[in-house]
Write a structure and sequence with these properties.
- With 271 residues, the protein is of the alpha/beta class.
- The chain folds into 2 domains: 110 residues, Response regulator (Rossmann fold), CATH 3.40.50.2300; 116 residues, Response regulator (Rossmann fold, 3-Layer(aba) Sandwich).
- 34% of the residues lie in helices and 18% in strands.
- The longest helix has 25 residues.
- It comes from Massilia jejuensis.
- This is Response regulator.
- InterPro entries: CheY-like_superfamily (IPR011006), Sig_transdc_resp-reg_receiver (IPR001789).
Length: 271
């Protein structure tokens, strides 16, 4: 999972459906010699590397201004806003790609500065932008979930990587390749997060999530799907099965840590 090139995660903020589709097509056509881009699904739990915001949507701009740890952002359309980089709509492709490369360089400098200072990584407090009438207001936050992280996968390599990343004393990480065993573990032991690899053979991730969430002891277990590009994620089916959200594979270490900070009692780690 971690040997592949990790694409730049882009959050499209406040765009109408047709405009978002056009923006995603532009990002998918980026020059192959440069960075590749992945537009995050609305159910994604991943921290974006870059935010593209609709400059004509006041709610989107308000949410951007109130992010806890805002990544570099590019405002498309509308007037210039808040010192963010700005392009008119529709953006000219060459100018869009140049702006994204500049923002990525800014992102790398900011993360390097955090690391040099020994400052912790900060996870965004909200799962997704709030674009309704209360946009920009402080979010309600549930107490951190207590318990281990359970990995459901065909092998234990990802479990080993995650355990090494966060440290076994900070957060217990368990693994199984069996759906019945996953259900049993979630029933008998406190599990804060169950991460299901959708490529695990013989496992229906929606059915497994539904079964886990049906148990009295797993009401607060957050089910997260690890989704590859060949898997057709169905947001409506996932939410109906109790899935909390998804992470696209391959996923970077920072995104994993931030997700665990948000869903478990894991303390902040140094950058």
């Amino acid at each position: 999972m971690h040997a592949h090139k990790i694409p730049t995660a882009v959050r499209l903020l406040g765009f109408a459906t047709a405009d978002a589709a056009r923006m995603a097509a532009l990002l998918g056509s980026a020059p192959p010699a440069g960075p590749s881009y992945l537009c995050l699904h609305e159910d994604s739990l991943q921290e974006p590397d870059i935010v593209l915001a609709d400059g004509t949507n006041p709610a989107a701009l308000a949410w951007l201004d109130n992010m806890r740890c805002a990544p570099p952002a590019l405002v498309i359309g509308g007037p210039a806003h808040g010192g963010y980089e700005h392009l008119p709509a529709p953006p000219e492709p060459a100018l869009l790609y140049e702006s994204l490369i500049r923002l990525l360089a800014e992102r790398r400098r900011a993360l390097a500065l955090l690391s040099a200072r020994g400052e912790p990584l900060l996870a965004e407090r909200r799962r997704r932008p709030r674009l309704g009438p209360d946009a920009g207001c402080a979010a309600e936050r549930q107490p951190p979930r207590e318990g281990k992280v359970l990995i459901v996968d065909k092998g234990g390599a990802f479990r080993d990587h995650l355990a090494g990343l966060v440290g076994p004393r900070r957060l217990a990480i368990a693994w199984t390749d069996s759906a019945p065993m996953a259900v049993r573990l979630c029933d008998e032991t406190p599990v804060a997060v169950a991460m299901i690899n959708t490529a695990a053979p013989g496992i229906d991730p929606y059915d497994l999530s539904r079964t886990i969430k049906a148990q009295a002891g797993a009401g607060r277990t957050a089910v997260v799907l690890l989704v590859g590009r060949t898997f057709a994620y169905d947001g409506e089916l996932a939410r109906g099965a109790g899935v909390r959200g998804l992470l696209d594979k391959p996923v970077g270490d920072r995104s994993l840590v931030c997700m665990l900070q948000r869903l478990t009692s894991l303390a902040e780690l140094p950058a």
